[in-house]
Design a protein that fits this description.
Blueprint lengths: L8 H5 L11 H7 L4 H11 L2 H8 L6 H11 L1 E3 L14 E3 L2 E3 L3 E3 L12 H12 L3 E3 L7 H7 L5 E5 L5 H13 L4 E5 L9 H6 L9 H9 L1 H9 L15 H8 L6 H10 L3 E7 L2 H9 L4 E4 L13 H12 L4 E5 L5 H9 L4 E4 L1 H33 L12 E3 L2
Parallel strand pairs: 4-11, 5-6, 6-7, 7-8, 8-9, 9-10, 10-11
Antiparallel strand pairs: 1-12, 2-3
Helix pairs in contact: 2-17, 3-17, 6-17, 10-11, 14-15, 16-17
């Protein structure tokens, strides 16, 4: 039998620890987000469905996106114990300059649609954290505006080759004049991928005020007020566009681009050149031979060719092919700091993250992006400590394997 008694107030008092109420609603909802998945759920409730689906979705049946996540779920770490990990240093060097973490903020299109803070907020967070940020050709902030908003950030500019080559050359010259250190040439978008969520939602740029979207506006009034009472969208590469994302890609982008275009860009661009969208070792060799300083093993976040190879599974072969001549980065499916640790151990110099910080942006603007960066940094560092490594250099292939 268990003897019971009345507790003393002094014993109860030690257990009563009411939390102070947080008056700021943004701070309150971000404080409850412990993972990127939590930020995703907050974001889903904060913005119209079409906007969330544009970020969250992928091409076709979204098989490639699921496989990217499943690949990271198959990672098995091999830890060492009794190592001094009282201080774990997650810093590294990217393109010859220090980076506080082995990651960069990836280029994303139409970012101010997610929150009016947009690319400027992302750039300021990148500047504070000490990681690079790549502004997209399809970004909704100009190269010059971002340079003013985040003057101390390591700014990269992501470039698509246009049918209008003079317009592409003008963008490159603007990036050089504004002090961008690297170009990220994306090569996996000869035409638009079939993004069926956008089709079903009737998603256009800018959003059309149809009966359906007006009904959705009643559920998300703050988002619409922000959109309609702030400056009209200004794109990094064009003044305006009215239509779907797919129509824009098919109208503007060059489907006839070849390796010769990489060589031509290398001949005119004085900074670092990164080629994004590589999934094959032979393609990696070709672009490095053409002058690329780095390649990104990427399937565009699953947003282009559905059923394409999974980047994490392709990474070792690309590293073996060009890793002694160029830096190799990875993107696609990265939603946890442990994912970054795994990719680096498999041979990547760093990872590019997109959806992770966009969930934060939708959830809370600049503070949400900072929350996403803090979550990833904490997870990354703790995973290193639990793995028994104190520096990024110790993340070697012996530390990981993919389970069958």
């Amino acid at each position: 039998m268990v003897e019971r008694r009345m507790p003393r107030w002094s014993e109860v008092r030690e257990l009563v620890r009411p939390r102070r109420p947080v008056g700021d609603p943004v701070a309150r909802r971000l404080a409850r987000a412990a993972t990127i998945g939590d930020l995703r759920e907050v974001a889903r409730r904060r913005v119209p469905r079409a906007v969330f689906d544009y970020t969250d979705g992928a091409a076709g049946a979204e098989i490639s996106l699921r496989r990217s996540r499943e690949a990271f779920e198959r990672v098995e770490f091999r830890p060492s114990v009794l190592r001094d990990v009282s201080v774990a240093d997650p810093s590294t060097h990217l393109l010859g300059s220090p980076s506080a973490l082995p990651l960069a903020f990836a280029p994303t299109g139409f970012t101010r649609l997610l929150h009016t803070d947009g690319e400027s907020a992302v750039g300021r967070v990148a500047e504070r954290v000490g990681v690079p940020y790549a502004l997209s050709t399809m970004g909704t902030t100009s190269l010059e505006t971002l340079a003013t908003a985040a003057p101390g950030a390591r700014r990269w500019f992501q470039l698509y080759l246009w049918r209008d080559r003079d317009a592409s050359a003008a963008l490159v010259e603007r990036a050089r004049a504004a002090g961008y250190e690297a170009l990220v040439l994306t090569v996996d978008t000869p035409v638009a991928g079939p993004r069926l969520r956008d089709v079903r939602n009737g998603f256009t740029i800018p959003p059309a005020l149809s009966l359906r979207t007006m009904a959705n506006a009643a559920v998300h009034p703050r988002w619409w007020v922000d959109l309609l009472t702030t400056e009209p969208l200004e794109f990094a590469s064009l003044r305006s566009w009215e239509g779907t994302v797919a129509e824009l890609v098919d109208r503007v982008f060059e489907p006839a681009a070849t390796v010769a275009d990489v060589r031509a860009l290398r001949a005119t661009w004085p900074g670092s050149l990164i080629v994004k969208g590589i999934l094959d070792a032979d393609d990696a060799r070709a672009v490095v031979d053409a002058g690329a300083d780095a390649v990104v093993v990427s399937n565009h976040g699953g947003r282009q060719l559905d059923r394409s190879p999974t980047p994490l599974e392709q990474l070792p072969a690309v590293v073996a092919a060009v890793g002694d001549r160029a830096e190799v980065y990875l993107d696609g499916g990265i939603l946890d700091g442990a994912d970054v640790v795994a990719a680096v151990a498999f041979g990547a110099r760093a990872c590019l993250i997109g959806r992770a910080y966009l969930y934060g942006l939708m959830a809370g603007g600049e503070r949400g992006v900072q929350r996403a960066a803090d979550i990833l940094s904490r997870e990354l560092t703790r995973t290193m400590q639990l793995l028994g490594v104190a520096s990024v250099a110790e993340l070697t292939p012996e530390r990981v394997r993919l389970r069958d």
